[in-house]
Write a structure and sequence with these properties.
binds NADP nicotinamide-adenine-dinucleotide phosphate, Rossmann fold, 7-stranded parallel beta sheet, alpha/beta, single chain, 8 helices, about 250 residues
């Protein structure tokens, strides 16, 4: 059974690996046998984490809001013979304004990081896999907020809804090359992105309506991530896998 989820011989790129889910994902993929590339803007953090992981881990700087930075990252990896066949498009930001008060820059920033960047990263990764005639797996980190609504997060929700549908488009177009594309849709997991929000009255009330009556533990994502990344999910593509303790199916 271990063999089914094994990532031995695979190389995984995780964007936004300097904190929260991305840092955790890097550990999970590494523990399953993959070589991992931890990428984020805060190079000191990803370097420290790669050092902690030891063999089969390296860190690289990336700013996914700039196409040139994404291309440079892939070129740097290729120059040292690294071809990534697992991509975890995890880097993300949230925003916090109601639409009537929102500056256009907030909209642009969120869409740029959460929707445009996963497209650019996936396209570059897929181009390189196709050229090398190799299969791969792309996991886009969406959110239950791509399926349901919440106040003051319109661009975030639009980006995640867009990412779920982009996942389907990419899955459709890349299937012929042996590249699977799926989305993971987490509920609430406490990280830097939402620690203030989770203390709010609104969040506390929302959490009481989660059928399992708790927020997620990062380990709750391990199985779903490995399912999508490994050959255990060989016949899954275009899927949006919800991991939320039932939050998105709560009673209306
Ligand atoms: N936590 C949750 O409850 C939850 C639920 C559903 C979905 N998600 C999604 O999970 C993903 C990770 O979020 P998180 O909760 O782990 O939050 P987090 O701790 O704030 O992590 C966000 C990561 O994104 C990176 N990032 C942001 N802008 C970037 C850029 N321009 N270029 C490169 N990296 C960038 C940050 O690294 P640097 O600042 O070092 O660049 C950081 O590592 C996001 O896509 C988020 O939407 C989270």
């Amino acid at each position: 059974m271990d063999q089914l989820f094994s990532l031995q011989g695979r190389v995984a790129l995780v964007t936004g690996a300097s904190s929260g889910l991305g840092q955790h994902f890097a550990h999970v993929l590494h523990a399953a046998g993959a070589t991992v590339v931890l990428a984020a803007r805060r190079l000191d953090r990803v370097e420290a984490e790669a050092k902690r992981l030891g063999e089969r881990a390296r860190a690289i700087a990336i700013d996914v809001s700039h196409e040139a930075s994404i291309l440079f990252t892939f070129e740097t990896l290729a120059a040292s013979g690294v071809l990534c066949d697992i991509i975890v498009n995890n880097a993300g930001i949230s925003g916090s304004s109601l639409l009537l008060q929102m500056e256009t820059t907030e909209w642009d920033d969120v869409i740029r990081v959460n929707l445009r960047a996963p497209f650019l990263v996936a396209r570059e990764a897929a181009r390189r896999l196709v050229a090398a005639n190799k299969p791969g797996s792309i996991v886009n980190i969406a959110s239950i907020l791509g399926l349901r609504v919440s106040p003051a997060l319109a661009p975030y929700m639009a980006s995640k809804a867009g990412l779920i549908h982009l996942t389907r488009s990419m899955a459709f177009e890349f299937a012929r090359y042996g590249i699977r594309v799926n989305a993971l849709c987490p509920g609430y997991f406490e990280t830097e992105i939402n620690s203030d929000f989770l203390k709010s009255e609104y969040a506390q009330a929302a959490l009481k309506r989660v059928p399992q009556r708790r927020i997620g533990d990062l380990r709750d994502l391990d199985g779903p991530l490995l399912l999508l990344a490994s050959d255990a999910g060989a016949f899954m593509t275009g899927e949006a896998l919800v991991v939320d303790g039932g939050q998105s199916i709560n009673a209306v």
